[in-house]
């Protein structure tokens, strides 16, 4: 999975909240990219997220394809108090639709929902855009943890399950087919 978006929209804060349950008011800018992992358990599978948190500064833009080309999922993050970050998020979505894996799961996250009194990007506008482009969409707040786990869980549920019993020739799993539960699973 890769996180994309402008600098200072809260990508690192979202990942840190998801992986470690932490929030730092003054998070330093990411240089290049940071890598974190987190495992979540769904009823039908265990999903290990391998997360590339990319730098948002323009000078690192050319590195982004290195991270999203092999990704099964992406979260494109914008700041609800910054219209330009929403426009740049749309550019990231277009780039992913053109160049990333055709089956990539893309979520759009309107971060900093705790600052709704300073909102410039309306929920309805972003939601309509997400629907037009078949994106998952949630407003999040890394500060209060609002919808942070939810956006990752929604992605986990949309990902194809890895090579296991019950897979068809395209490598997808029929979720209506009962799966065998392995012993020692964290999902008990």
TrEMBL record:
Similarity comment: Belongs to the small GTPase superfamily. Rab family.
Transmembrane region(s): none
Subcellular location: Early endosome
UniProt keyword Lipoprotein, yes or no: yes
One GO CC term, this protein: early endosome
Single GO term (MF): GTP binding
Domain of life the protein comes from: Eukaryota
Chain segments carrying region Disordered: 163-188
Gene3D superfamilies named in the record: P-loop containing nucleotide triphosphate hydrolases (3.40.50.300)
Matches recorded under Pfam families: Ras
Compositional bias ranges of the Polar residues kind: 164-188
NCBIfam families per record: small_GTP
Documented EC number(s): 3.6.5.2
Keywords attached to this entry: Endosome, GTP-binding, Hydrolase, Lipoprotein, Nucleotide-binding, Prenylation, Protein transport, Transport
Annotated InterPro entries: P-loop_NTPase, Small_GTP-bd, Small_GTPase
Protein name (Swiss-Prot/TrEMBL): small monomeric GTPase
One GO term of the biological process aspect: protein transport
Catalytic activity: GTP + H2O = GDP + phosphate + H(+)
């Amino acid at each position: 999975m890769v996180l994309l978006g402008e600098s200072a929209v809260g990508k690192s804060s979202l990942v840190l909240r998801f992986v470690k349950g932490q929030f730092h008011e003054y998070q330093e800018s990411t240089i290049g990219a940071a890598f974190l992992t987190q495992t979540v358990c769904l009823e039908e599978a265990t999903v290990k997220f391998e997360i590339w948190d990319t730098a948002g500064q323009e000078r690192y833009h050319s590195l982004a394809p290195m991270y999203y080309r092999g990704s099964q999922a992406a979260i494109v993050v914008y700041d609800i108090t910054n219209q330009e970050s929403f426009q740049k998020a749309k550019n990231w979505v277009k780039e992913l639709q053109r160049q990333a894996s055709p089956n990539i799961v893309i979520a759009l996250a309107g971060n900093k929902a705790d600052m709704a009194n300073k909102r410039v990007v309306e929920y309805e506008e972003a939601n309509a855009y997400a629907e037009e482009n078949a994106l998952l969409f949630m407003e999040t707040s890394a500060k209060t943890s609002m919808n942070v786990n939810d956006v990752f869980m929604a992605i986990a549920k949309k990902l194809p399950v890895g090579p296991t019993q019950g897979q068809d020739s395209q490598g997808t799993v029929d979720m209506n087919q009962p799966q065998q539960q392995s012993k020692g699973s964290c999902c008990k």
